[in-house]
Amino acid sequence: MSNTGNTVLGILAGSAIGAALGILFAPDKGENTRKKIADQAAATRESIAEGAIDLSDRAAHSLSSKTDTLETKMNSIVSDVSYKTEDVITTLESKLADLKAKNKKLQKTS
To answer: Which end of the chain is more exposed for a tag (fewer CB within 10 A), N or C?
Structure first.
């Protein structure tokens, strides 16, 4: 995710710098050059805003996907623990019944 953001930012910055240098070195009147620079700055600003929105959308989608995956895993873990708890309770109840039976035998022999 960070590499994608850096790549997008690098491409946008490179485009803006290239366009600005192209305008500055093109032979034209100062007024026309300033207008071209202002237009290019506005276009770059819009491009950066669109890139930021796209990056934000991708980050939100990725986070949502990871949240869903985490929720699914947590539900699976809770379910597994519940089954294991039932197994432990069943085993303990069986052991308790055996101990009660042994205790009754000991009480009758006394």
So the answer is: C
